[in-house]
Amino acid sequence: MNILFTASECVPFVKTGGLADVVGSLAPVLAKLGHDVRVMLPMYTSIPQQWQQQMQFVLNFDVQLGWRRQYCGVLSLKKDGVTYYFLDNKYYFGRPYIYGLGGDEYERYGFFCRAVLNALPLLEFKPDVIHAHDWQSGMVPALLRIQYMHLPFYAGIKSVFTIHNLQYQGIFGIKEVQDVLGLGDGLWSSDKLECYGCANFMKAGLVYCDAISTVSPSYAEEITTAYYGERLDGLIRTRKDALYGVLNGIDTEEYDPEHDKLIFEPYSLKTLEGKAENKRRLQAELGLTVDEGIPLIGMVGRLTNQKGLDLVDSVLGDLMNERVQLAVLGMGDARYTNLFSWAEGQYRGRFAARFAMDATLAHKVYAGADFFLMPSLFEPCGLSQLIAMRYGTLPIVRETGGLRDTVLSYNEYNGEGNGFTFLNYNARDMFTVIKRALYFYENDKAVLASLQKRGMQGDYSWTHSARDYVAIYEKLTAKA
Ligand code: GLC
How many Cα atoms occupy the beta-carbon half-sphere of 41 within 13 Å? Predict the structure, then answer.
C-alpha cells in the first residue's frame, strides 16, 4: 500500500512531544511490513544541520492561499526505508520556534495542509491512505473531501485522522481561516466546519476523515464522554463506528537499556548492578545525595496541568517528609518551573529539577530512577511509562487513558502487576500509593523485583499496533 503520513513533528528531525516519537517510530515499522511509506513535514529551520545536509531538493510550486501566492519547495531524504518530504517556506517555517508565538498558526498550518495535497501529483505519488496526525494536519482530510476528491488524481484516496491529544484543537476565527483556505460560507454549519462559533482544525479532521483513531483503547472510550471530550465528545459519539483505539509502541532500539549509549552503563535483567551504578551517577550528576539506599522517583515530560503536577504540588511537603529523592526533567508552565526551582533550593540534595528538552538526561533518568511518577489528569497514551518499565523503573500512575491500558497495579493476593496505580484524581490517593510503593522499597524488595522483571520483559514494540493500523487501512481501501 502507498501510505502518506502528515504531521507537524517527527523524530529525529523535530520534537516537542510524544507525537514526534510516534510518527518517527511507526513509519519505519510500516515500511518494514512492505508498504511504501512517506512522511510530509514542515521544513522548520530548527531541524538539525546534520539532517538538512542530507536533504535533496526535489521540486517547487506555488500555493494559492486566498489572495496570497506562496512558494513551496519540497526537499527530501530517505531513512530506514521511509521517504521524508519537507515542505519549505521560510516565511512560515523559518522561525525560531515550532509553534505558537506569531498568532498566525491557521495560516502556517493551512499552508501546510494545502501544500501537502498539491504536492502529491507533482511528486507522482498517489497514496491509498493519507494518515494525518493531530490538529496541525486536520485540514488535510477536510480539504481532500471538500475540494480535491472530485479531481481524477485524488479519487479514491482514503484518510485516517489520529488524535494524539484532544486538548489541542487549533481554534481560530472563521473569517481568518476562510481568508486563507477559501472554504465557502455554506460549509460553516455545526455538522461541517463550524465549532462553537469558531473554526477548529481538529474538528475539521474528525468530521471529514474516513476513520478516526486515537492512541489507546481507554482514551478512545474516554473521549466519547464530556469529562474527557474537550467539547468534541458529541461529534466523536456520532462517529463511534469509525473510531479506533490503537496503543502506541516505542522505538525499542532507541530505548534499550542493554545497548543504550546515552546512559552511564548499559544493563539488562541479568546485570541489574548496572542499574544501581546508573542511579549513583545520576544522583551525582543532579546534585542529589549519592546513596543507593534512598528511593529515587523520576518524572520526565511536559510540565503542564495534563501531567497531574498540581497533585504533586498539593502533597510536596508531605512527600519530602518521606525518605525519598525526586528528579524532575521537562519544560513547561511557569507555575511548575517556579515550584520545582523553589523545591530544589528547599530540599537540597533530595530534589532536583532540570527545565530542558534533554534526550540524554531523559535516558539517564529512566535508567537511574527506582520509580517513575505519572499522575496524569488525562493521558491519550503516554510513552514515558513504557520506557520506564523497559528500564526496570516502576511506574506509579493514575488509571487513565493509555496509563490504564499499560500499567497494572501490584495485587498482593495473586502477585500480578507491573507497577502501582490509583484511580481518582486526588492528591491524597496519589500520596497513599506512593507510600505503598515506598513501603515495599524499605520492607520487601522481592516484590519490587518481580514487578520490575515483568516490566522489563514486556513487549512495547510496534509489532502489534502497526498491524492494527494496516488492518484499518485495508478496511478503508477494500473494494466493496
Ligand atoms: C501526546 C499525548 C501522549 C501520547 C503522545 C503520542 O503527547 O499527550 O499521551 O502518548 O501524544 O501519541
Answer: 31
Concatenated DSSP letters of 385-444: HHHHHHTT-EEEEESSHHHHHH--B--TTT---SBEEE-SS-HHHHHHHHHHHHHHHHH-
Nearest Cα residue to 362 out of 328, 336, 335: 328
Q: What is the pLDDT of residues 418-474, one digit of tens each?
A: 999 999 999 999 999 999 999 999 999 999 999 999 999 999 999 999 999 999 999
Decide whether any atom of ligand 1 lies within 6 Å of the 164 Cβ: yes
Q: How far is the CA of 277 from the centre of ligand 1 (A)?
A: 31
Model-level pTM greater than 0.90? Answer: yes
Neighbours of 93 (CB within 10 A): 21
For atom 12 of ligand 1, the residue with the nearest CA is 164
The 10s digit of each residue's pLDDT in 17-35 is 999 999 999 999 999 999 9
- From CA 77, how far away is CA 54, in angstroms rounded? 6
Domains in the chain and their CATH numbers? 2-249+463-478 (3.40.50.2000), 269-456 (3.40.50.2000)
* Residue 446: Cβ within 10 Å count: 7
What's the rounded Cα separation, in Å, for the pair 432 and 140? 46
d(CA 408, CA 179): 50
Rg (CA), the chain: 23
- What's the rounded Cα separation, in Å, for the pair 38 and 389? 31
Longest dimension (CA), the chain: 71
- Whether residue 101 has pLDDT greater than 80: no
Instruction: Pick the atom of ligand 1 nearest to 401's CA.
Output: 9
